[in-house]
């Protein structure tokens, strides 16, 4: 018999923790795991908000059965169809064949495609309301945050926003569920990483969704990943607001690749100069070692981006090029960009980095440094100057 966390009057947390997967979406590392959050409202009507990854359907269905205690499940609201949340819908339907599935027209196309479910549906549009007895649930469409069918559900009585992936983080819920009842320090960096990895391309849709939310009084945000936000709503919303506007804080991430250490020496020199000129937040990533998940996190976090690469078969170094592709895919805006590179007999990296910066429409800062073979005093000085130019720009000098 499960004792479930009541997060508001007659609203229960029925989500699960995943400490087994190593890669979210088979792509992004999960050193602290991830939670798949689901919420059950026990009103005159019973309502489940989202399901969980199919790997955890057994424990999930047991939790729901314990909470319902023989009552029927009247509604399943599907705020998001990605399988980490929608994976258990078919099994849930088998267990509760009369449950009405609430979604929008895009939800139902995916529901048929993933689960072959086409009946017992209840379609909602922007602003539609379901009355469950003692409360109303209102639906707001949030397309492309980060899938087209995404919607938010708002509990008017309890002022709860069920926000799908928005405001979510990597990291399991280790006992506590509500932010006010747990130490959430570890979640803030993971929120940025989650955003940069999963949502990052969709800044404008996130801004539109945030504008809708600004009209609502929200006392709790119930995302599909991570803590329920109650005490830190303002910080969670502000984080999303800044990230979706691509607003970086003062600091520089230096992403480099290096085969034998010569480009790395350039990166170290640039970093030294940044520090000497007053920049406190400096992060170096060796693209061959740092997972792109973390590099993207820091690219979203900081205003300055500096990239260094050796020339490799007349191209950029492959691991570095792969990271740049992920940055470009996310259409990161407004970065201050500096770059450098090395070669042995014919240089290509620097001109390819220049082209990358132009495609991104970023402001180029300082003079790029191109080094042939080992570091000379002249190239050392050029790297110092490049670092200083970035520092001065960030400081507004
Ligand atoms: Fe957590 Fe977009 O699924």
Report on this structure.
With 397 residues, this protein is of the alpha/beta class. The protein folds into two domains: 5-244, Metallo-beta-lactamase, Chain A; 249-394, Rossmann fold (3-Layer(aba) Sandwich), CATH 3.40.50.360. The protein is built from twelve helices and 23 strands. The strands form five sheets. The protein has a seven-stranded mixed β-sheet. β1 (5-8) and β2 form a beta hairpin. α5 runs parallel beside α7 (233-244) and α6 (203-213) packs antiparallel against α7. The longest helix is centred in the last third of the chain and has 19 residues, at 377-395. It starts with a strand and ends with a helix. The mean pLDDT is 98. MU-OXO-diiron (FEO) is lined by residues 80, 82, 84-85, 146, 165, 224-225. MU-OXO-diiron is lined by residues 80, 82, 84-85, 146, 165, 224-225.
Indicate the topology.
Layout: E1 5-8, E2 11-13, E3 16-18, E4 23-24, E5 28-29, E6 34-36, E7 39-42, E8 46-49, H1 57-68, E9 75-77, H2 83-86, H3 89-95, E10 100-103, H4 105-115, E11 121-123, E12 129-131, E13 136-141, E14 151-155, E15 160-162, H5 185-199, H6 203-213, E16 220-222, H7 233-244, E17 249-256, H8 262-276, E18 282-286, H9 292-301, E19 302-312, E20 315-316, H10 318-329, E21 336-343, H11 349-360, E22 363-364, E23 369-372, H12 377-395
Parallel strand pairs: 8-9, 9-10, 10-11, 15-16, 17-18, 17-19, 19-21, 21-22, 21-23
Antiparallel strand pairs: 1-2, 2-7, 3-6, 4-5, 7-8, 12-13, 13-14, 14-15, 19-20
Helix pairs in contact: 5-7, 5-9, 6-7, 8-12
Bound molecules: MU-OXO-diiron (FEO).
